[in-house]
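Researcher: Please predict.
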Amino acid sequence: MSSFGREPGHALLGPFQEGTVLGLTSPERANALLLGIIEAASSGPHVEPLAAAVARLITDATATDVCFVHVLDDTERSLTLAGATPPFDQYVGEIQLPIGSGVAGWVASHREPAVIVERKEEDPRYMPIPALRGTDYTSMASVPMESGPSGLVGVLNVHTVRRRQFTDRDLQLLGVIGRLVAGALHQARVHRKLEARERAHERFAEQVIGAQEAERRRLAGDIHDGISQRLVTLSYHLDAAGHAMTSDHETAVEQLDLARGLVNLTLDEARAAIGGLRPPVLDDLGLAGGLASLARSIPQLEIELELDDERLPEHVEIALYRIAQECLQNITKHAQATLARLRFRVHRGTAWLEVIDDGVGFDVLPGQPADPHSGGYGMQSMAERAELVGGRLRVISRRGSGTTIIATVPLAPSDGDDPADSDPAGGDAADSDPAGGDAAGPA
């Protein structure tokens, strides 16, 4: 027998009438619910254990058969299943719903409850998820979880095997529970974001240190095997030329020619070693000139350029140059592209770097930019380079339609900045592309 059969829905009263607590006629059940919520909220700053406890509490309090707790993810563009009653708890973290998709997505988008009494497959909001076996359940109710000024935190869904006419009282009870736990869930989400950011910084610090040590070893090897050896040989040729000056003029000239060639080769190697530490083109030409030079160094790929001649702080120029360099290397290695577009501009106090290709692309979650941290080391290192200078990296791709990578870095205001300048793209500079390009590719 289902839990609906154990206790009729009449026990749920609301608007909360006199003589009830949380809409429950039984003080014992109300106290148990409150104690359960307090215990769950104080169990620790982690989303999944809290959501699992909430799911159990809700099925007991509402006399329903199953509960799903969907929590807004860190992108705030989709819901992730964070808690569920067995046997569906095995899918925690695996089920995602974009905002607006499915009943839970609709509730998150509209910030209002939804009830389906029967024939849910006929409701345009319903989207079947095979793993959650929606066809096993007849009725469902869904309410938003909101935490005051923090806004939407997630969505609560309850289902019953038997047909159930959910009342306003039922929805009010679900709403109260949702509000009671929303604050704790919000704090857990904040804690998770902070932990993720700390882990990212730790990984980046390790990678930076590792890269520094590798670079030191490489430079030491280059200097020892290249510059040092050639200087030793240069000294030999100069000695030989000196000895031959008085007796063998032709040999002296030959030795001096060899020495001159070694000097030129050594200078080239020294310049290459210095360029590996900091691109000298940035000192000479600035970021726009450096990006143009970078594009010319890849003759096998046609690259369209749209570059503003703006100078930025040194560390920002280096970061954006390296991001562009990594992007173009990835295009030539993996994208199978014939055309790319490289854009750089400064708009409303933000530096924009955009690299678009018409290559093979790759699929990401519908309606969402790819997470740059989920890619390989190259993609992750680009994201971390952007974050290190206070910016962010966005990746937009679709299989067969190319890839767009956008790096944005907010700049410190200067005397010439006018914050009232209008955005020609018609949007906020933090969220719109001032270049107005096609995210799918240049073709």
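Model: Residues 130 and 187 are 31 Å apart (CA to CA).
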